[in-house]
Amino acid sequence: MAGRELTFRIMRYNPETPEVKPHLQDFKLFEEPGMTLFVVLNKIREEQDSSLRFDFVCRASICGSCGMLVNGRPTLACRTLTKDLPDVTTLLPLPVFKLLGDLSVDTGTWFREMSIRTESWVHDDSEFDPTKQEERMDNEEALKIYEAERCIECGCCIGGCATANIRPGFIGAAGINRVARFMVDPRDKRTEQEYFEVVGSEDGVFGCIGLMACDDNCPVGVPLRGQIAYVRRKMASAGWKMKVGR
Amino acid sequence: MGQYEMFVTDVLVIGAGLAGERAAIESARNGLNVTLLSLVPPRRSHSSAAQGGMQASLGNTAMGKGDSPDVHFMDTVKGSDWGCEQDVARIFADTAPIVMREMAHWGVPWNRVTLEKRVYDGKEIHEDPEKVGLISARNFGGTAKWRTCYTSDGTGHTVLYTMDSIVQKYGITVHDRVEALSLIHDGETCYGAIVRDLRTGQLRVYTAKSTVIATGGYGRLYGASTNAVINEGTGMSIAYDTGVVPLGNMEAVQFHPTGIVPSWILITEGARGDGGYLLDKNGYRFMPDYEPNKKELASRDVVSRRMIQHIRAGYGVDSPYGQHLWLDIRHLGAKHINTNLREIATICRQFNGIDPVHELIPVRPTQHYSMGGIRTNIDGQAYGLKNLWALGEAACWDLHGFNRLGGNSLAETVVAGKIIGEKIAEYTKDVSLKVSTSLVEDHLLIQQKRIEQLRERKGTENVYDLRNRMEHTLNTNVHVFRTEEHLLEAVHELQELNERAKYIKLRGEGKGADPELAFALRLPGMIRLALTIATGALARTESRGSHFREDYPKRDDENWLKRTLAYWREGAKGPELEYEPVKITESPPGDRGYGEATAGAKPLVKQ
């Protein structure tokens, strides 16, 4: 039984030939059982157009490489099944990030800059002592850290964020969630004031205008709405205390 | 010569997964200038996909009570079927607990011991109240104790994110979206690498006092593999291409019992470790018949063979993608599945449209891990070239021998990263970099010519067709069960493919960062690795660990207690095999306590 004929309308752009403006190109193929966009894009590259650029690594929704706009919505291509798609599907690269070619965008550089800006590491001056037992931690606390740590840096929350699309310095839900991950970690010795320096601005948590597309779009279900509220509350109180302190 | 960018560094680490990053940190802490190269942003490395955990004998849980590095050592040696280096296994088992604690200090949110009630295999587990809050552990195959430290379903992810946060903290230079095409060397010493920028297609030169390969495994040679698409063995290839660096034990390939059908995504061993069963087409739990002691949790090589054996005996489930068996975790309950095994639940729901809380998961043994790799000494120094190092899955350090235990490779990345990282730092301080410009330009020219030749499009062979043939022959002839007939077929076919790979014709123009060109540059090296695997497997006329010869079903310590070293000499048409003794320091070869030697090779099914 032949499957449906599917059309993929894919944005093409090669930075080496800037004279060719970004445009949409149609590719057609027949659907197969269990087909995902990982299968589709590789088939197109191997059988129809060998120059098509896109990014996959794990193809199992773990690594966050393949965020793109599927019919306008940011999501991971690897876990998008064609059976859930209409006959014609438009694929566009995620906005906000630098376009490397076709569907490939430079999320890596964006996330690295964000991580360094928010100093996303445990701040603790004590030296590790190899002879000592580990510090105890409540398992619930560990799970709470993991909940935020589960972000896979795919950029779907950023690509779909109104603020991030107009304000280049905005750290977005991924950045705010990253700060929350360290705030809930007792091993990080930063004070509220120090966090305020990092995230208490319009490019930080106060840039969020509350549309919450991020929460809808997160492919791994990080509770971004809750995380943003948590950081906002902490930072509002820190800001107030700093004001009173002056 | 044309223009090219040139970078000079003390330590060049190729590969920014866990092993590469951990080693880089050690050099940075010692004040050395380090540059990390990565095919992808470091956090997307395949390390992130490891769901299960890391073995370390902390012994904090009730089921891990009495554990020690000695017990861990012995499990590892048995697992390897006495094929590992015992001094390596010893230093690894001794150091692993310290490194887990160090990772906790750096930020990994390890699951911790709680007093929460827990029933396992019908028995209630009571944790020691004094251990509450210490690093917990889960059960994995082939181990005497519960020893696998974990963070829910995302151990590789959290450890890699923490490791990368430390890389950022130290301000280590990272160049992502680059690929090393060859090593710069003069047959005696390594001086760095020729690298292609995957954003633009430009070539770059990196020179270094020490060059470190940490590029992971070659799973994608098989196509049907649990591995990420970037795991194409390129790091092994470029070391092999020097003609003087040998690859160790390439025939030792691990097949994981539970790749999900048909996308071959891994269903972690944690599923069986936490109490999951394997069922056949009749819904019958068959593993206790074959392996009365370890059941589903014998070592991976044994479970994979038992599964194929059971399918061959007529108990497989038919599907359009071939026969498979079932993994059953329904009895673990929704709460456990949705938290501790969430990743599995997600994979099942998203890729197969099934809910493992209520439904069975279709699984079949799938290529998973390369025990073999760049042969190094215990310090991580590659054989054959000075100033070249290797660690992690890319290396044959040789912790795993002929079968790796679940949880030992992820642990190896960080433990070897610390141990070898310290050696690299210590050694590099005394190296002075003297590299001749003409040597660099010679190596650069070779790569430029390869690229120009491909762009001329005068060949005849389609790069993806060649790849498909390579995948097919490995999957058909060099899999869980092996015979001389099939291995000969594989060797002949791969020899032919190796010739044909000289005449690749690009479909497109191959300009700039063209993905087809990138693959065309990679494929010949992949075929050489595949041929080396098949040749080593054909030569080894015994069965040991994952290497099972149906025509030689017994382990043969008299003739084969040795490691294969494969060299691909300059201009040769195939590998040249040599052998070296396996280092036995503590445990003489004996019975593993599971597998065919113990439980008998015949099926014991009593359905």
TrEMBL record, chain A:
Keywords: 2Fe-2S, 4Fe-4S, Iron, Iron-sulfur, Metal-binding, Oxidoreductase
Cross-referenced SUPFAM superfamilies: 2Fe-2S ferredoxin-like, alpha-helical ferredoxin
A Gene Ontology biological process term: tricarboxylic acid cycle
Cofactor requirement: [2Fe-2S] cluster; [4Fe-4S] cluster; [3Fe-4S] cluster
Molecular function as annotated in GO: 2 iron, 2 sulfur cluster binding; 4 iron, 4 sulfur cluster binding; electron transfer activity; metal ion binding; oxidoreductase activity
Location of the 4Fe-4S ferredoxin-type domain: 141-171
Stretch forming the signal peptide: none
Keyword 4Fe-4S annotated: yes
Listed InterPro entries: 2Fe-2S_ferredoxin-like_sf, 4Fe4S_Fe-S-bd, Beta-grasp_dom_sf, Helical_ferredxn, SDH/FRD_Iron-Sulfur, Succ_DH/fum_Rdtase_Fe-S, Succ_DH/fum_Rdtase_N
Name of a matching Pfam family: Fer4_8
Domain of life: Bacteria
Similarity comment: Belongs to the succinate dehydrogenase/fumarate reductase iron-sulfur protein family.
Name of the protein this chain belongs to: Fumarate reductase
UniProtKB/TrEMBL annotation, chain B:
Main localization, broad class: membrane
PROSITE patterns in the cross-refs: FRD_SDH_FAD_BINDING
GO molecular function: electron transfer activity; flavin adenine dinucleotide binding; steroid dehydrogenase activity, acting on the CH-CH group of donors; succinate dehydrogenase (quinone) activity
Domain Fumarate reductase/succinate dehydrogenase flavoprotein-like C-terminal intervals: 467-594
EC number: 1.3.5.1
Subcellular locations according to the entry: Membrane
Family per record: Belongs to the FAD-dependent oxidoreductase 2 family. FRD/SDH subfamily.
Protein's UniProt name: succinate dehydrogenase
